[in-house]
Amino acid sequence: MEGSRKLLLVTLAVITSFGFVRELIAIPAQSEEKPTNPNAVYDPALYQALRYRMIGPYRGSRVTAVTGVPSQPRTFYFGGVGGGVWKTTDGGERWRNVSDNYFEAGSMGAVAVAESDPNVVFAGTGSACVRGNVSPGIGVYKSTDASESWAHVGLPEAGQIGRIRIHPRDPDRVYVAALGHIFGPNEQRGVFRSRNGGESWENVLYISERTGAIDLVMDPSNPRILYATMWTVERKPWTLTSGSEESGLYKTTDGGDTWTELTEGLPRGIKGRIGVTVSPANPKRVWALVEAEEGGVFRSDNGGATFRRINEERAPQTRPFYFMHIYAHPTDENTVFVVTRPFLKSIDGGVTFEPVGNPFGDNHDLWMHPEDPDILILGNDGGAYVTFNNTQSWTTYLNQPTAELYHVSTDRSRTPGLP
Description:
Blueprint: E1 7-15, E2 20-28, E3 63-69, E4 72-80, E5 84-88, E6 96-97, E7 108-113, E8 121-125, E9 140-143, E10 151-152, E11 160-166, E12 174-180, E13 190-194, E14 202-205, E15 211-218, E16 226-235, E17 240-242, E18 248-252, E19 260-262, E20 271-278, E21 286-292, E22 296-300, E23 308-311, E24 325-328, E25 336-339, E26 343-346, E27 354-356, E28 363-368, E29 376-380, E30 383-387
Antiparallel strand pairs: 1-2, 3-4, 4-5, 5-6, 7-8, 8-9, 9-10, 11-12, 12-13, 13-14, 15-16, 16-17, 16-18, 18-19, 20-21, 21-22, 22-23, 24-25, 25-26, 26-27, 28-29, 29-30
């Protein structure tokens, strides 16, 4: 019919690594007699009326940072690789984003809550699980009102941040493990310390412009004792270079003023990524998960003075650039976890490991309640999950719209009025 107008159906597809969702939107189109001018220029002010809205999927994606609040056992945080920082106050039944409108980066590498003041939260941008599609960070953010608002507090060139530790009695004393730029050398790498809540930072452990800090743990019995691991790594579009003689495990007993490399019993020569943990039940017991030709799980029972390899199986060392995370049980010195492609648990001090059931794979971070170890939060490639019964059951991951968008597709074929 002459002068009639037709409806053009536009299909919007959000592609994720798990599937897709479509929504049909009816848009008035020009009639065939009056096709749209392909060279038309529109007033940019017209675009101000457009608004993004979430259409799904409500399924979690990669999470490499999780933490909880000991004094509030149903409150947890997670940092998504592409979704910013999220918070729950009902044990994982509902999550809400708390970083939008504040953060200028979506990739998160670390989240930490001050034990002495849960209103103080630090978040480090730039995930340090450096697979090929990795987004750089822009430094550290801080909240003093339990994540209701945030301020950027420095280290803009820290690249990927692997860990943040806060003094248990002084929320102004903070340590950051900064890996640095993943695609090339830079100076802002290593362990940084702030004694004024992030107003200023000191680089207290530095190796070189190629080697940064990847893991950091504080002795639960003495916050002046910390262990840090250093890693030489660089991503290229086609490969990854991991390891050098600069990689290693370091210890300080004076709060970061001086550091000593721990070498006795650990692999010599070229080493790659290293994870480290200390047993709260026995702080002399230290585990190191080491990427090396003769790598594996190493344990010290004298505060790092000497180590011995107790497990050389391949499973705990799977894809070291992506995993190599190890965690001590808070009350049992013989129980230790490795989060890797499977979720692994040892009850014999790390000599043997068995898989633990959980909803997804490719596990990256774990937090256990220090007084009630039945309460855990686990972060992996499917999102964040909470358990209150020692991994017998977990909360859902279908309430976290944090999908990583890998592709966007359009179809302009045979559409009237379009070139």
